[in-house]
TrEMBL record:
Gene3D superfamilies: P-loop containing nucleotide triphosphate hydrolases (3.40.50.300), Putative DNA-binding domain, N-terminal subdomain of bacterial translation initiation factor IF2 (3.30.56.50), Translation factors (2.40.30.10), Translation initiation factor IF- 2, domain 3 (3.40.50.10050). This is Translation initiation factor IF-2. GO terms for cellular component: cytosol. The keyword ATP-binding does not apply. Residues 127-136, 202-215, 238-254, 387-401 have a biased composition (Basic and acidic residues). Residues 496-644 are annotated as: G-domain. One of the essential components for the initiation of protein synthesis. Protects formylmethionyl-tRNA from spontaneous hydrolysis and promotes its binding to the 30S ribosomal subunits. Also involved in the hydrolysis of GTP during the formation of the 70S ribosomal complex. The gene is infB. Transmembrane segments: none annotated. Residues 103-114, 289-302, 322-344 have a biased composition (Low complexity). Residues 303-312 have a biased composition (Basic residues). Its main location: cytoplasm. SUPFAM superfamilies: Initiation factor IF2/eIF5b, domain 3, P-loop containing nucleoside triphosphate hydrolases, Putative DNA-binding domain, Translation proteins. It comes from Leucothrix arctica.
Length: 995
């Protein structure tokens, strides 16, 4: 077995040593350098590896074919209308096969006779040379393929401005041989010359939708060769076919018949031994000429069949490709074909004949078909079918109008309160834009949050619009339109409405009790009035209606409402007590309402009564009696004995007669809500004072934000009545809810309008309440940031009537201080329900009921949750309990009291005690264990604890003034002579709220 070095093998095959070493390494042959030897077996393995890697293993040996494949991807946009517009992926595959001569069964037949005649001793060397030749042949084939591909690329890049000629390659041999060519694909020729006939078969495309316009592409510009005649060329040299497959995403398939390829036919004029392994002449010049001719023929065929390039703009409608007539083979001595000059694209478009509707370019419009007269219609343009050959461009179905350049400024009407979503609707923007603008102004809000008028106007102006404030629509004017014309009714005298006011326990209710000859005061809890009592009394001189108001400080709002609804005010003052705070308040309410004032000095029967003193005190507030030259009437009465009561009633009727009180008795009724409450089994119960007209059972009533039809009317004695006239109080049932005290009441003839007005008022109240809550939250947040966290007492309050609820809310809120605050998490009228207990549990609140009770289910849930229910019937007790609870939340006060003072006379050092101060007690008592302060020059330099106290080497508990002692200060040794030691005590004192 012969061996050869790698370097020598590289010289034989004509390949670089580095390339050969890399190929050996890839083939699994382990060599270290160029001087290493390889065997014949390793050479065969190397050859097998090279053939396998290049795809020429057995097929090359058997058929002599070398196949080159190339693939490229591209995208085309199909100009469909609407949803038909899509992008198509086009994949172009090119396949080229090069044939070579295969004269013997052996892979390489060159120099076969020499191999056969070789001696056996030289078999190894001949085999190595044969392998080297095979490698060289393979390398040359690859070089030819590379040259062919480069020439093809150069032809494609050259501008197609010159005439394209059909090329005939003629190779004349010096000695012609009449032997026929053995190649199967060789084209027969009448003359013994080499011809390259260019024949193209018709190209057929089967597509569902045309993707692009196929343009006939002229062949490459190939000039006839002027080289010397070829002595010998391979008989079976052939350029393989090129196949183009187009695959689209919309399942469009294009099948292209492979056209006949130009075949290079050469007359065999030389013996076979003058050809190399590739069937080419060994002469370098002839070899170059043959390779150039073959490359030109391949380039011409490829250039003829290449697909037309896609132009992005303009989009031209695809047209079917006309079959190209096969070029007839030229005669042996025929002249070259006349070159065809390619036309420019613009001229080509102008000269193109009209091809009908099927070939018209679709108008590429996004999302639409372009209207009736579009390019998709027959004729291409408009209804009349005018010719339209100009290319179409992409258009949009959107309107051709642009937005106005000037900003749109809207004028928005802003009511007192407006929700963010409603404001966004008026501005024609999204709610998020409003919220973003508010965030830019430093305000956090939600889409359902109500804004006040000033804030809304600022936001509107910030967004570039104009805000117009709208005054609140006077609902009374709307109601007036619905009420019948009342000017035609006759006015009659009506009874006066008298309100009794004064300080608590001055005898207001007792006086009214005597007048009514009943025991009203005994029925009130604690003997005090906690509601507005409305009564009417029939006297010998006529009817008088009385409103009894509470005198407690918590019922300020009740007294104010009583003063507004009255014609005359009776101010009750106790003769033995004089003017009190609520007396002053009653005078202020009376003066504000502008009604006459009658002063009743009560309890004149008691010892120590001094009516003159009361007159003197009242004169300080502008209340002067007639006997003193004033306008106010004074009456001395006794609610217990009845002294002066008839004179009081006579004075009331006299003042009423002077006022000439009149009202209509016919037509729809109007009045005022005195009190309202919620009763179990009866629903909302409201006490109404009729001021005008006659109120009847079954009337549609509107009271504030509540409405309803009257189901029943009950007088103060608990008896049902059918109708009541002016100045008469009555309880009504049938309203949708409990209206607030002081709300006006009117009878409506239209139920639908009454419901609309009530709902409008309800929404307004809700928005106002929500805005107030938001403001309270912000104020609370800022106050927390400023003052820190406050201790809070959460309270859930339920009362029997609206007036008591209002009074309790005001009183509890007044208990709040800078350190503690009362938070009423919920309040309402009626009994305590399960919902109230659940809310109290969530808010950790105390449940308080004033004259109400919890139902069975609420009591059960409260006991399970451990929530205490507190019931009250007297307002004093409720307020006092809340005050005590707030006092428990107050931080205790820490007070310091100095008990003794000692002066340091000397300092002694002890090994076990450290510095001991010898002191003289100058003030008070020094006690062991008390906190101390060390003063030096009247400045505190240390605070600590008195650790040891001795007198004459004995431990003592205290040392009094004028006695010497030794004092040891804990953890302090810097005591000096002349210092003072101050002994004091700390005392913790519980704080309470002032009443």
């Amino acid at each position: 077995m012969s061996e050869i070095t790698v370097k020598k093998l590289s010289e034989m095959v004509g390949a670089p040593v580095e390339t050969l070493l890399q190929q050996m390494q890839d083939a699994g042959i382990h060599v270290k350098g160029a001087d290493d030897s390889i065997t014949d077996r390793q050479k065969l393995d190397l050859l097998e590896h090279i053939r396998t890697s290049t795809g020429t293993v057995e097929d090359t040996q058997k058929t002599g074919k070398i196949t080159l494949k190339k693939r490229s991807n591209n995208e085309l946009k199909l100009g469909g209308a609407g949803k038909d517009s899509r992008t198509v992926n086009v994949e172009v595959r090119r396949k080229k096969t090069i044939l070579r001569k295969n004269t013997t069964a052996a892979p390489i037949a060159t120099d076969a006779p020499a191999v056969e005649s070789a001696e056996p001793t030289n078999a190894g060397t001949s085999r190595a040379e044969e392998l080297g030749k095979e490698l060289e042949a393979e390398r040359k084939v690859r070089e030819q393929a590379v040259i062919a591909s480069r020439e093809k690329a150069a032809k494609k890049a050259a501008p197609a401005k010159e005439a394209i000629k059909e090329t005939e390659v003629v190779a004349e041999a010096p000695k012609a041989v009449d032997t026929p060519l053995p190649a199967k694909e060789a084209t027969p020729s009448p003359e013994k010359v080499v011809e390259v006939p260019v024949a193209t078969k018709p190209v057929e495309k089967k597509t569902e939708k045309p993707a692009e316009k196929a343009k006939p592409t002229p062949a490459a510009d190939i000039k006839p060769t002027e080289e010397k005649p070829l002595e010998a060329t391979p008989a079976k040299a052939k350029v393989s076919e090129e196949k183009v497959d187009v695959k689209a995403d919309d399942k469009t398939e294009s099948t292209t018949d492979t056209p006949a390829k130009p075949t290079l036919t050469v007359n065999k004029s030389k013996p076979e031994d003058q050809l190399d392994a590739n069937g080419l002449p060994k002469d370098p010049k002839l070899r170059r000429a043959a390779v150039a001719a073959k490359a030109r023929a391949e380039a011409a065929a490829i250039f003829k069949k290449r697909p037309s390039r896609v132009k992005p703009k303009p989009v031209v409608a695809p047209t079917p490709v006309k079959p190209v007539e096969a070029a007839k083979p030229a005669a042996a001595k025929a002249a070259p074909a006349k070159p065809a000059t390619p036309a420019k694209p613009a001229e080509k478009a102008k000269k193109k004949p009209f091809q009908g509707r099927a070939n018209s370019a679709p108008l590429n419009i996004k999302g639409g078909n372009g209207g009736r007269g579009g390019a998709n219609r027959k004729g291409g343009k408009g209804r009349r079918g005018q010719r339209r050959n100009e290319p179409t461009v992409d258009q949009s179905t959107e309107h051709g109008f642009e937005k106005p350049t000037a900003p749109v400024i809207r004028e928005v009407e802003i009511p007192e309160t407006i929700v963010v979503s409603e404001l966004a609707l008026q501005l024609a923007v999204k709610g998020a834009d409003i919220i973003r603008a508010m965030m830019g102004m430093g305000v956090m809000a939600t889409i359902n949050q109500a804004l006040d008028q000033d804030t809304a106007i600022l936001i509107v102006e910030e967004m570039g619009h104009k805000g117009v404030p709208v005054k609140a629509i006077d609902e009374e004017s709307q109601v007036a339109d619905l009420i019948e014309n009342l000017g035609d009714f006759e006015l009659h005298a009506r009874p006066p409405v008298v309100t009794i006011m004064g300080h608590v326990d001055h005898g207001k209710t007792s006086l009214l009790d005597y007048i009514r000859t009943t025991r009203v005061a005994s029925g009130e809890a604690g003997g005090i009035t906690q509601h507005i009592g409305a009564y009417h009394v029939e006297t010998d001189n006529g009817i008088v209606s009385f409103l009894d108001t509470p005198g407690h400080a918590a019922f300020t709002a009740m007294r104010a409402r009583g003063a507004k609804a009255t014609d005359i005010v009776i101010l009750v003052v106790a003769a033995d007590d004089g003017v009190m705070p609520q007396t002053k308040e009653a005078i202020e309410h009376t003066r504000a309402s502008g009604v006459p004032l009658i002063v009743a000095i009560n309890k004149i029967d008691k010892e120590g009564a001094d009516p003159e003193k009361v007159k003197t005190e009242l004169s300080n507030f502008g209340v002067i009696g007639e006997d003193w030259g004033g306008e106010d009437i004074f009456c001395n009465v006794s609610a217990k004995t009845g002294q002066g009561v008839p004179e009081l009633l006579e004075a009331i009727l006299l003042v009423a007669e002077l006022q000439e009180l009149k009202a209509r008795t016919d037509g729809p009724a109007q009045g005022l809500v005195i009190e309202s409450r919620l009763e179990k089994g009866r629903g909302a119960v409201s006490t109404v004072l009729v001021q005008q007209g006659t109120l009847k059972r079954g009337d549609m009533l509107l009271a504030g934000a509540e409405y309803g039809r009257i189901r029943a009317m009950i007088n103060e004695d608990g008896k049902p009545v059918e109708e009541v006239g002016p100045s008469i109080p009555v309880e009504i049932l049938g309203l949708s809810g409990t209206p607030s005290a002081g709300e006006p009441v009117m009878v409506m003839g239209n139920e639908r309008k009454a419901r609309e007005i009530a709902e409008k008022r309800h929404n307004k109240e809700r928005e106002t309440r929500f805005a107030a809550q938001q403001a309270a939250k912000l104020d609370e947040m800022f106050s927390k940031m400023r003052d820190g966290e406050k201790s809070a007492l959460n309270v859930l309050l339920k009362t029997d009537v609206h007036g008591s609820l209002e009074a309790l809310r005001d009183s509890l809120n007044k208990l709040s201080t800078d350190e503690v605050v009362v938070k009423i998490v919920s309040s309402g009228v009626g009994g305590i329900s399960e919902t109230d207990i659940a809310l109290a549990q969530a808010a950790d609140a105390v449940v308080m009921g004033f004259n109400v009770r919890a139902d069975v289910s609420a009591r059960r849930i409260a006991s399970e949750a451990g929530i205490e229910l507190r019931y009250y019937s007297i307002i004093y007790e409720l307020i006092d309990d809340v005050r005590d609870a707030l006092s428990g939340l107050l931080k205790p006060e820490l007070r310091e009291e100095m008990t003794g003072l000692a002066e340091v006379k000397g300092v002694f050092k002890g090994s076990g005690f450290g510095a001991i101060a010898g002191c003289l007690v100058t003030e008070g008592v020094v006690k062991k264990g008390n906190p101390i302060r060390v003063l030096r020059d009247n400045v505190v330099i240390f605070e600590g604890e008195l650790e040891s106290l001795r007198r004459h080497q004995e431990d003592v508990n205290d040392v009094r003034m004028g006695t010497e002692c030794g004092i040891g200060v804990k953890n302090y040794d810097d005591v000096q002579e002349g210092d003072q030691i101050e002994i004091y005590t700390r005392t913790i004192i519980e704080r309470t709220l002032e009443k």
